[in-house]
Amino acid sequence: MKKIIVLPLVALGLVGCTSVKVSPLPKTELIDRICIQKNDAVKVTDLLAVVQQRLQYHHINSEVFSTTRPDNCRYIMNYVAYRTWDIVPYLSSADFTINREGVMIASANFHLRAGGGLSLMKWRGTEYKINPVIDRLVGEQ
């Protein structure tokens, strides 16, 4: 009689869990505009557009700059994101920080444990992965 061991297969599937850690924007920070420093090293092509759209959803206007910070920017967002390959590239990790006048006041991290493992969710789009992170980061503005 052959026995099929199911437990290890289930355990492998659980390895692909998503980790989201957020230190949200304090409720006392009423942001209506934020400047985002473009990170040219990020190869997730739609990440910046997704972030800007989600900030707009929370009534936060955004401006992207590359090198010189605009004078009228009190709040700056920095980010980094990484892709992993499994047949095709997909977003596997992203970090965001919000600084007010040089002091970090909020941060968020999205990470697919073990690169997403066997989970088919790892191939979901950037919006699906990042919108909830931005929601928790900026809260209900």
Would you mind describing this structure in some detail?
- The chain has one domain: 2-Layer Sandwich (Double Stranded RNA Binding Domain), CATH 3.30.160.
- The chain has a 6-stranded mixed sheet, covered by helices on one side.
- With 141 residues, it is an alpha/beta fold.
- Strand 4 and strand 5 form a beta hairpin.
- The protein is globular.
Helices and strands, with pairings:
Blueprint: H1 7-14, E1 18-23, E2 33-37, H2 47-57, E3 61-65, E4 75-86, E5 88-100, E6 103-112, H3 126-138
Parallel strand pairs: 2-3, 2-4
Antiparallel strand pairs: 1-6, 4-5, 5-6
Helix pairs in contact: 2-3
Name its key features.
141 residues; 36% strand; 6 strands; six-stranded mixed sheet; 3 helices; alpha/beta; Double Stranded RNA Binding Domain
How many domains would you count in the coordinates?
A: 1
**In percent, how much strand structure appears in the residues?**
35-45%
| Molecular shape | globular
The oligomeric status of these chains comes to: single chain
CATH topology: Double Stranded RNA Binding Domain
| Known CATH architecture | 2-Layer Sandwich
Structural class: alpha/beta
Assign a percent range to the helix content. 10-25%
The overall strand count is: 6
**What is the rounded Rg?**
18 Å
CATH class: Alpha Beta
Please state how the strands of the largest beta sheet are arranged side by side.
1-6-5-4-2-3
What are the low-pLDDT stretches, counting only 5+ consecutive residues below 50? 2-16
Largest sheet: 6 strands, mixed
Q: Compute the average pLDDT.
A: 80
Please write the string of helix (H) and strand (E) elements: HEEHEEEEH
* Distance between the amino and carboxyl termini: 61 Å
Number of helices: 3
